[in-house]
Design brief:
One of its GO terms (molecular function) is glycogen phosphorylase activity. This protein is of the alpha/beta class. Helices cover about 45% and strands about 15% of the residues. Bound molecules: pyridoxal-5'-phosphate (PLP). Pyridoxal-5'-phosphate binds next to helix 6, helix 24 and helix 25.
Amino acid sequence: MCGQLWERDYMASLFNDTQDFIQQYRQGCESYYARSFEDLTDTQRLYVLSALIAKKAKALQADQDPQQKEVFYFSLEFLTGPLLDNYLLNFGIRDLVENGCKELGVDLDDLIKLEVDPGLGNGGLGRLAACFMDSCAALGIAGNGCGMRYHYGLFRQAIKDGRQVELMDNWLEHGFPWETRCIAESVIVQFGGQVVRHEENGRFWFTQEGGDLVRAVPYDVPLVGFGGKTVNNLRLWSAEPAEENFNLAAFNNGNYAEAMRFRSDVEAISQILYPNDSGEHGRLLRLKQEYLFVCAGLHSILRGFEKKHGCDWDKLSDFVAIHTNDTHPALCGPELMRILVDEKNVEFDCAFEIVRNTLSYTNHTVMPEALECWPISLFRSLLPRTYMFIEEIDRRFHDTFPRDKHNWHDLLSQTAMLWDGCVRMASVSVIFSHSVNGVSELHTQILKDTTLHGFYELYPDRFNNKTNGISHRRFLGNANPAYSALITKTIGNGWLSDASELAKLSVYENDPSFLEDFEAAKLNDKQRLARYIKEQTGVSLDPHMIFDVQVKRFHAYKRQLLNVLKIMDVYNRLLDGKGFTMHPTAFIFSGKAAQSYVFAKEVIRLINSVADVINNDERVNQIIKVAFVPNFAVSNAQLIYPAAEISEQISWAGSEASGTSNMKLMMNGAWTLGTYDGANIEIAKRVGDSNIKIFGLREQDVVNLRQPGAYWAWDMYNNDRIRLGRIIDQLTDGTLNRLSGGFESIRDELLTNNDHDLVLADFYAYVQAWEELTRSYTNRHVWNHGAVHNSACSGYFTSDRTIREYANDIWHISC
Ligand SMILES: *Cc1c(COP(=O)(O)O)cnc(C)c1O
């Protein structure tokens, strides 16, 4: 559709021409399925096409400069989304492949729609990792991902009677054509057993004996950069029994059940992706996952280093940077020390120096309950030798702690790795790294002031900010063909490689013909989403309504509840007939709640119950509609972001570390309705006050309201029985009971639990801000001007910019 707009001079010549492509595609069908193209299902055709592109990509990996410093990005999640469309664009062969498919009698877009989302991540954190990999490759940085190959993703979400229902996400069912199993590069990983001390001629060393041996097998997925010049590698580890340790005795005795039990215990390690919400840690299997991918990943890096540079371990940080995404890979520090000391004969102090120079850490949350901790007893019995390195570094940390400060005892209790019977992973991450960063200016400030304040006093130079970014190629280029074609027609296609060129759009902010074209593209995207929503949910949305969107994981702090209380208020006021009018609006939600997160699941049920009442009430359903899109994932996110006109970013101030959907939505020309939180603040700074709607409590207000006795949610209820009180009553008075009953627990959260997330405290400011914003929608010039202005200012939020900052400031790679 966007046709030649994607052509580039340096287009990789993977295929000589369309005929060459067709011939290779046909050959692929024969070799994968021993059938001709015509005899394959579309799913099989997609598989062969993807495998063909993957093979081409892997061939390009071979010739990369061995002297280049490499980055290894350790993350337990990579939410890549579907890859084919993105890689065709990056290679500059989308047209050629589309034409070839047409000649073969199949529509490329139909194949692309069949690609499943790899079940490799939860949400923002995993998507950030995927955007970073895209940017590394686009910028020519040798940036490799290191992660886990989960057999099952989180879950597929369906909605029944308004409730979230969790179905198995068997994303590998039809195979994953992008991966290559590399059994020759397996790593044996040891769990449990005992540490034994050896001594000879005054020299001593340790070994870990016994326990279970697990084989970590890597699966490699190519990461294709824009322009097709750089292809990096995403290495995902899978757990299998090691022959060395497979229960052979049981097997030989014919006790297959016993032998297989061992197999499935081992395979369980890479079987499932854990939800990332609080309350989910402390599970042994999760710690096994964390250790397996760290241990295997490090061995694989050191093998590569040894091949290129020999055993000159002092030079490790000259050629290797290891970045840890949150604390999940925190074991990288102690484990790299263990390998250097035990397996490479490096002296203890040197090893610590090497490790610190090589490692860096990104923090993702300020919520104390979400900071990862493991009971020492469990940790030590699973990883006895690795634990000794934490213990020894912790001992030295205590010994050398600066006791001249008056508050030294507080500082020590905030920062020690071993405290209260637990291993504190954030402390491990900071102590073994040379750099600690937050993901927005506000978040980094909060880290310095509170969450990691002790460390900031000790090591101020380690702290820096790296405001998150997003792949503008995927989330504007791939996701929004209509708008990106208009952008390219207007300012050329340079914005694809250099997002700062989006600023050129500001010249057209007042150009009536451009604004008209923008509106047409937006309408096209809204129609496309309306079709999808009709198909998925049966709800019809009039594309001329305002599309007001909140799509993200369900979490109390993100306050989807605030949004739905607003919708109930609007509904009540429309029915009151006291002259309240508004532009017709569709409220669109999407997102999953963790299986065990009862409150978040109740909010989903509430939204669906409100939707049921409103959508079926003919008095209002031409004016408001509510839609819940099931199973939020990168694939349907790419349909939702382009169609949005209002971007709801309403977390309480100080809670959302950065947010990235706020960036994707502004880039696609949505207005932000948000709190002064995370990266919203930086969006506001760039677009200016008149092109964003900020409301509500500021971070300091929240801190003040959290002082004992400062806030009484019951007062909010008692002081306004007409509006707010009425809405709260409706939660339990039967108004919403038709689908699956009332909402006592939500009422309890708001009143009895004193409204921890300050939903009631921000209610009036929020509704008023929303009203003012939607009222301005009728002035089409002002609205479209602001929307385009948002796109024009969004270039800063490309992950290319973020990665350039990581490269220069943290990884010491110039680009
Ligand atoms: C961007 C993205 C997120 C993160 O959204 P936030 O609003 O920043 O929490 C989550 N899930 C998917 C699929 C995304 O693409």
